[in-house]
């Protein structure tokens, strides 16, 4: 197989513990939409996370519209997307923390200088930038190495669409086969695998009682190997580099 030159990291719940904060804000807006449309259902952040993990807010909104047979005017749709970005960024700047062990592993990789590194996320670029800034990971990921399915593409999309991974490879001048992605969700893993990228699954941000189930989900999506802790990353990478 080609020599691995590039590491492509998902952001939310892979590098930073942002999903709980984000889905709290998403639930508030989703419930506002449902109320305005006279629909009695209500979501908690946890319920939204369970149903839509790995999707950005734009993708989640599209799924909700399909589920409830709604058609929001484009201007209204876009206004909710902007409001969600603002609310999540506010929560991130107040309370975001890195995933356990992620910063130490990034520091080791940066010191070694063996791989190019980038963030490839479904989330809006402003949110990803706020996330890496808050936890001090901006030194590893300059703005030109942050790729967002919501804002970096000519046509916004969301994982599991592989478009954002293919875009990142094109911009960085890489072939998918020389890259490794790190993903914590089914949609994220599918996005990378469909782009032809070797994918390591990460379950360390999940609650301990949910990790075995998530391992199975990620394996089914094509991620292999799976790691529970960032301390396992080197061994996972070696596993991939030894593949025929």
Explain briefly what this protein structure is.
The chain is of the alpha/beta class and about 240 residues long.
- SSE order: EHHHHHEHEHEHEHEH
Rough outline: globular
Second CATH tier, the architecture of the largest domain: 3-Layer(aba) Sandwich
Number of domains: 2
Radius of gyration: 17 Å
SS-derived structural category: alpha/beta
Q: Please, how many helices?
A: 10
Strand content: 5-15%
Residues in helix, % = 40-55%
Low-confidence stretches are: none
Largest sheet, spatial ordering of strands: 3-2-1-4-5-6
Reported by name, the CATH topology of the largest domain is Rossmann fold
- Nearest-integer average pLDDT: 94
CATH homologous superfamily label of the largest domain: HAD superfamily/HAD-like
Main pleated-sheet profile: 6 strands, parallel
- Give the end-to-end Cα distance, rounded to a whole number of Å: 6 Å
CATH class of the largest domain: Alpha Beta
Could you tell me the number of beta strands?
A: 6
Keywords: Hydrolase, Magnesium, Metal-binding
Protein name: HAD superfamily hydrolase
Cofactor: Mg(2+)
GO molecular function: metal ion binding; phosphatase activity
Description:
The protein has 244 residues and is of the alpha/beta class. The chain folds into two domains: 158 residues, HAD superfamily/HAD-like (Rossmann fold), CATH 3.40.50.1000; 77 residues. It has ten helices and six strands, in the order E-H-H-H-H-H-E-H-E-H-E-H-E-H-E-H. It has a six-stranded parallel sheet, sandwiched between helices. Helix 1 runs antiparallel to helix 4 and helix 4 runs parallel beside helix 6. The radius of gyration is 17 Å and the shape is globular. It starts with 5 loop residues before the first strand and ends with a helix. Pfam families: Hydrolase. Keywords: Hydrolase, Magnesium, Metal-binding. This is HAD superfamily hydrolase.
């Amino acid at each position: 197989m080609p020599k691995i030159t590039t590491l492509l990291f998902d952001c939310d719940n892979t590098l930073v513990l942002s999903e709980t904060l984000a889905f709290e804000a998403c639930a508030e807006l989703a419930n506002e939409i449902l109320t305005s449309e006279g629909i009695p259902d209500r979501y908690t952040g946890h319920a939204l996370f369970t149903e839509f993990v790995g999707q950005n807010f734009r993708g989640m909104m599209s799924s909700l519209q399909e589920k409830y047979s709604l058609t929001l005017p484009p201007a209204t749709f876009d206004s909710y997307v902007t409001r969600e970005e603002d609310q999540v960024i506010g929560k991130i700047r107040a309370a975001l923390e890195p995933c356990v062990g992620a910063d130490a592993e990034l520091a080791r990789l940066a010191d070694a200088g063996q791989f190019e590194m980038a963030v490839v996320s479904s989330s809006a670029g402003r949110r990803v930038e706020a996330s890496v800034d808050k936890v001090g990971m901006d030194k590893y990921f300059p703005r030109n190495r942050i790729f967002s399915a919501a804002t970096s593409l000519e046509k916004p999309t969301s994982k599991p669409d592989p478009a954002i991974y293919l875009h990142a490879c094109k911009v960085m001048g890489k072939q998918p086969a020389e890259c490794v992605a790190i993903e914590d969700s089914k949609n994220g893993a599918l996005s990378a695998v469909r782009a032809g990228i070797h994918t390591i699954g990460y379950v360390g941000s999940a609650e301990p009682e949910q990790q075995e189930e998530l391992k199975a989900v990620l394996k089914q999506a094509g991620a292999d190997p799976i790691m529970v802790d960032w301390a396992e990353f080197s061994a996972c990478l070696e596993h991939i580099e030894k593949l025929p």
